[in-house]
Write a structure and sequence with these properties.
Two copies of one chain form a homodimer.
Chain A: E1 8-12, H1 16-27, E2 31-35, E3 53-56, H2 58-66, H3 70-75, E4 78-80, E5 82-86, E6 92-96, E7 104-108, H4 109-122, E8 126-129, E9 132-138, E10 143-148, E11 153-157, E12 160-163, H5 170-175, E13 182-197, E14 212-216, E15 221-226, E16 232-239, H6 252-262, H7 273-279, E17 283-291, E18 294-295, E19 299-301, H8 304-307, H9 316-333, H10 338-368, H11 374-389, H12 397-403, H13 408-444
Parallel strand pairs in A: 1-2, 1-12, 2-8, 5-14, 12-19
Antiparallel strand pairs in A: 3-7, 4-7, 5-6, 9-10, 10-11, 13-16, 13-17, 14-15, 15-16, 18-19
């Protein structure tokens, strides 16, 4: 592997993306200071909170392998080899995501972050600072100023700053004041609210453990991902307004009636439903796009700070980890030219981030609406058959995204090419049959 | 006409859109306070400055008729019934925009704004304040705070605020802090720089007066619009970077060599070329989209503040004036429910603003690249022929946008429908010919 010239990096944000990037940078021999707004979650009392989980798939797994934490992460992960659809009548339909042995993995956001931070701190060349809120960035120095827990102000100066401070990034906010910075934020008409299905009395799971559960209801849906302790984190993706909207449910009766009507089989699994529903907030779902992601060799953005996406393809974390892999590779390719590394990282990743942002929005429609449609299920079966018959040529789009590291934008191009070829073969076959029929008719006439 | 209930409106921005809206509101009987950041351009010395001009077409003309200023505006307007393309070899190609009698009109931005402000101040129920910069907006009051020329702070409170303060709107900036506000800003890789072709010695025009002149050079272009005084305002739309970029031209020799190579017939028309080029700034070209455009019955945005677009369809001003017409109509339809009026104005205009933003970007490619292509010119001729043969059914897209008030989004849908029908007729005719040929062959066999 080429050797990166050791430098001083300031990483703003110690969430999942920041912690992975700090590991990559420390591994490459750089001196790294990591600043995080929140308290150290390894010391905070998180047991009382809800357990938020995420779907880890191949792109994320690859990064976790490269920084040497995958074995520990997988110990607590729950494999989800398919989707389990719940009809309004309680009927269950199971659909595998990929081939035998392929699965996405439900992991705890907090648990994973702890593992990543422990790994970061094993490197002697890393220092972590918690409860340091980024106030401003001097892009040219480059330096970042933080307010610490005691109210004092700290300025950190280095060779480069990595902004990995999430969808509402302070580093990006500073970059937005640059000339000709492209930026967009788009909110869905839907929000999300998290609920909990606790473990069964006496332990174990109250539903199929190894599946991502979906209650598709066309214009809205609820999903559940298993946790290692036997519980599920349930997420309602409903519109804010209208007949199926959060804002319509004002009384306990409203809430209970709505769940009984639309999710009757889930109600008995959630003894704290009413309290959870009324206590937990409704979060918004935003897609953020921007560009450029770097300022010369001084500042680079990654993860949600560069491209917040909606959660419906389970790729937000995986995409952020793939950013880290890509940035590390770019620094390896340009070991003595960080400007070139940042620039080529941005150029290579931008179209892929845009692609997964689009795919994630499209997949919301697929999850909430189409998965309940028999025609769609038949199409998925045809896709599986094609993959079995032509494994070297055909990969269904979902599997390209979740089970390969084919760049996101390339998965879209390849899916379109596959569809075009199938259409050509289909119409070619029909034409050939017609010709044969006409020839036969002529010969018999 | 229905009667709007008189109210107190605060209009932020007295540019073209603000002045037209203030006229509409005053006409409907409202009390209007208009606040403008810049000095009153009727008193400022603008003779030394460049004369910036704009293309006025049917949508804008309609609004100017409704507020009763069209005759005065048309006195100084220069009709442009077509495009004049300038080849690198100096060859001229003329292409009419529409049918006989149809033209877009070159008008002076400053001159038009003066006419509109004079008209505003003829209304007793309007007060104008210049050199009042908007600092903040209280969305709920609603009220707006301004810093006046002497540094003092003034707060204006009314029933509703109209934000018409341009692409970098202060009113919109305040709305961006609302929950779930959608926003995007996208810059082109091209910028623009304005130059001047002065009147001929002894008066008159140095080129064809009645045309919009284009020097299309595929990836970049220069254009010129005539002014009433015999001069032309020239605008270079070039990339910032690359072989045809502003940033590459560093010395006088660079500038002269570039113009001599790419715009040789324009060079002798611009005696002050070098000085103009070096003195005038490069402006950026941004598309801004956002939503919603209103906050309850308190605040509404219009014009560039709601949807800044690039200038290549000549519709920025026309679209802003059409916003004013639409908002006035919505207030007429809901004379006692301003919230409903604002909401229906936004719902009706949003898709049209998005459509013209897309069309304007597409038209840049058409203007700089395709207008020099013989196949494109033949296509335009076929469109004109179709319009003559089927005037009630076929209208070329450019003409729908410039010479009708068909909503922008509808022009796109209608153009697609026209194309589909033409394709169907074409392939239907081919199939019929083949059938006839086959039938004849069979009959003869």
């Amino acid at each position: 592997m080429p050797t990166q010239t050791p430098q001083n990096y300031i990483v703003v944000g110690a969430g999942l993306g920041g912690a992975v990037m700090a590991n990559y940078l420390a591994q490459a021999g750089h001196t790294v200071e990591v600043y995080e707004k929140r308290p150290d979650l390894r010391q905070a009392d998180i047991s009382a909170g809800r357990s938020i989980n995420l779907a880890l798939s191949v792109r994320g797994i690859h990064a976790l392998k490269e920084i040497g934490v995958i074995d520990e992460v997988m110990k607590e992960a729950v494999p989800m080899p398919g989707r389990m659809m719940h009809g309004v009548d309680g009927e269950l339909t199971y659909q595998p995501y990929g081939n035998k042995g392929e699965a996405i993995h439900s992991v705890s956001r907090g648990g994973l972050n702890c593992i990543l931070l422990d790994a970061v701190e094993k490197h002697e060349n890393v220092t972590t600072f918690f409860e340091h809120r980024c106030l401003d960035v001097d892009m040219d120095a480059p330096s970042a100023t933080f307010e610490s827990a005691d109210g004092s102000t700290v300025t950190a100066t280095g060779d480069a700053i990595i902004g990995t401070d999430g969808a509402f990034s302070a580093v990006r906010a500073r970059m937005q004041r640059m000339e000709r910075f492209n930026y967009s934020q788009d909110y869905l008409a839907h929000g999300y609210k998290e609920l909990t299905i606790p473990p069964a009395d006496g332990g174990g799971y109250r539903m199929e453990k190894n599946a991502l559960h979906i209650w598709p209801r066309e214009s809205f849906m609820t999903i559940a991902l298993p946790n290692a302790d036997g519980s599920y984190t349930v997420t309602c993706f409903w519109p804010y307004d209208g007949p199926y909207g959060f804002n319509r449910l004002k009384t306990d009766d409203d809430i209970e009636a709505f769940f009984n009507k639309w999710f009757p089989d889930a109600v008995p699994l959630m003894p704290d439903l009413l309290n959870d529903y009324k206590t937990n907030p409704v979060g918004s779902l935003v897609t953020v796009r921007c560009g450029p992601w770097n300022y010369r060799d001084k500042v680079a953005l990654l993860g949600d700070a560069a491209h917040a996406i909606v959660p419906f393809y389970g790729q937000g974390m995986n995409c952020a980890f793939e950013d880290c892999t890509a940035l590390n590779e770019a620094l390896n390719r340009h070991p003595r030219d960080r400007a070139a590394a940042f620039e080529s990282y941005y150029q290579a990743r931008k179209e892929n981030a845009d692609a997964i942002a689009d795919l994630a929005i499209q997949n919301f429609i697929e999850m909430r609406d189409k998965v309940a449609d028999p025609a769609f299920l038949r199409k998925k079966k045809r896709q599986k058959l094609l993959r079995k018959l032509l494994p070297n040529w055909y990969i269904p789009p979902y599997e390209m995204v979740s089970f390969t590291r084919i760049p996101y934008a390339e998965t879209i191009r390849r899916a379109m090419e596959q569809d075009r070829t199938i259409a050509r073969v289909k119409y070619g076959a029909i034409a050939a049959l017609l010709l044969i029929a006409a020839g036969t008719a002529w010969a018999l006439s």
